[in-house]
User: Which sequence fits this backbone?
């Protein structure tokens, strides 16, 4: 197994520390990145209304998203699903950034990718995990409104499908990514879903000796197919600090 380099939550801001000395509009960013298992969707029929009570309202400018009137109920429902083993909280980053300043959240690790050139053999590290990038801009012509550019990437090493590079076996990468731009009122929660992943495992069982008999062996054999599905959801809230 290839050596992996792990690191913990990193939150970076792309502006100089001197900017803190200036009076600037600030935005608090809070995100919940949740993976919900496919068994919940398959056996119960996943419906937002089943767990969350929210109203649909129009947000001027770009698109319509759900406005959660009671965020406490949302958090409680997510915790309940997590406790029941039907959801996994991948990350819960929080940060304060200046309007117009990009904020980056990274939780994960790195996998070394070997390479060979005229100078010899080396390795470059490819990041995996949860990578969230947001750029909030407070709109001067719209009261308490934030324009948000957002990009989310979730990737994991897949050791079941390894590849060989320069004689070294490394895992392939499963990546889910989404990018969007919306306008939100201060305190509203943006919900993004639909990033699905499916794993199919096939196992064959047979009765010793009898299962190996040509033609008749099928009568003493069985095939089990297990398909695991999961969906990724992002809940992110932007609050203008006054």
Assistant:
């Amino acid at each position: 197994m290839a050596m992996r380099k792990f690191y913990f939550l990193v939150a970076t801001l792309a502006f100089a520390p001197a900017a803190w000395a200036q009076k600037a509009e600030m935005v608090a960013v809070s995100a919940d990145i949740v993976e919900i298992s496919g068994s919940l969707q398959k056996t119960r029929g996943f419906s937002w209304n089943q767990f969350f009570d929210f109203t649909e309202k129009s947000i001027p400018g770009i698109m319509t998203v759900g406005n959660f009137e009671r965020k406490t109920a949302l958090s409680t429902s997510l915790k309940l699903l997590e406790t029941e083993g039907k959801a996994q909280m991948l990350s819960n980053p929080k940060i304060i950034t200046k309007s117009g300043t990009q904020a980056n959240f990274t939780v994960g690790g790195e996998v070394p990718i070997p390479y060979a050139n005229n100078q010899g053999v080396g390795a470059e590290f490819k990041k995996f995990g949860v990578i969230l990038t947001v750029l909030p801009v407070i709109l001067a012509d719209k009261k308490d409104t934030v324009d948000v550019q957002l990009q989310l990437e979730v990737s994991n090493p897949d050791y079941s499908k390894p590849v060989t590079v320069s004689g070294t076996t490394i895992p392939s990468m499963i990546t889910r990514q989404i990018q969007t731009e919306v306008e939100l009122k201060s305190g509203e929660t943006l919900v993004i879903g639909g990033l699905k992943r499916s794993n199919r495992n096939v196992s064959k069982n047979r009765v010793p000796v009898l299962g190996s008999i040509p033609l008749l062996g099928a009568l003493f054999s069985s095939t089990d197919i297990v398909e695991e599905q999961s969906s990724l959801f992002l809940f992110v809230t932007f609050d203008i600090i006054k």
